[in-house]
Each structure stands twice: as C-alpha cells, then as structure tokens.
Amino acid sequence: MALPDPEIALKLARGVSRFLENLGYGTVTEFSLATGRRADVFGVNERGETVIVEVKSSPVDFLTDNKWPEYREFCDYFYFAVAVDFPQELLPAETGLIVADAYGAEILRPSDLVALNASRRKALLLRFALTASLRLRRLIDPDLE
Questions:
Q1: What is the pLDDT along the chain (145 residues), one digit of tens a residue?
Q2: What is the CB neighbour count within 10 angstroms for residue 60?
Q3: CA–CA separation, 124 vs 35, rounded Å?
Q4: Architecture of domain 6-140 in CATH?
Q5: CA gyration radius for the chain?
Q6: Where are the domains of the chain?
Q7: Which of 67, 65, 56 is nearest to 5 (CA)?
C-alpha cells in the first residue's frame, strides 16, 4: 500500500478548498482546533455553518489515523476527501465523502448535519477569523514575527 503523500494531500486540499469556495464557504487549511488537532480543510459559510474535510492521500494514511472522530464535535458537516482511485470501501459509511483532485472536487456522499452548540460555534468562528487574518497579514508583511 502507498504511504501517505504530502504532495498529493496538498493537491487534494487545494481542490477541496476551490470546491467549497464555489459553494459559498471561506476556507482555511491546516486549521488548529481547541484540542490542538489540525483539520486539513475548515470552512465557514455566510450562515455560520462549519465543515471539516479530512484529506486522505492513501489507504495507509487513513488506516493509521485514529484521531479523525475527534473532529466531528468541531463542525456541522464532516467529510473525507480522497483521490478518485482511493478504495472508498475503507472509509466509514457514516461520514461524508468527497472525491477531489488539484482543481476541484465532488461530493459522492453528503455529510449528515450535526449542529454545533452556540458557544462552540462562536469560538470556532472567532478562531477562523483570527487565523485567516493572521495568514493574510503574513502574506502582506512576510517579516511579521
């Protein structure tokens, strides 16, 4: 089985981000949650709904990852995103499924809505805004410490 491939993961995250942005989500990759875990792609739409997409670059990447269930309590919608040749039968049926490449993506199985409580939603939205703002600031001012 192929080992996890960071280059493939980056391409999939890019395609997922493009797809979500076309659906009206703002996205941040490698988004840190309050637990210290990092979501591969985190998105927020104008209604304040949140989505986490966990990118899997290979079967080994999925089979060695036991942390993904922890992400569910930090989003309204949860998906795995994989390449078209990924053996989809490995992925849990109770999660959403996205097939992606570097240029876009498509939902094959929608995620169930598990609505966040108001205080967690507020905390996530503030963290998202601050993360996005700091990343934009670093692009404008690369010398920022």
A1: 666 789 999 999 999 999 999 999 999 999 999 999 999 999 999 999 999 999 999 999 999 988 999 999 999 999 999 999 999 999 999 999 999 999 999 999 999 999 999 999 999 999 999 999 999 999 999 887 6
A2: 14
A3: 12
A4: 3-Layer(aba) Sandwich (3.40)
A5: 15
A6: 6-140
A7: 56
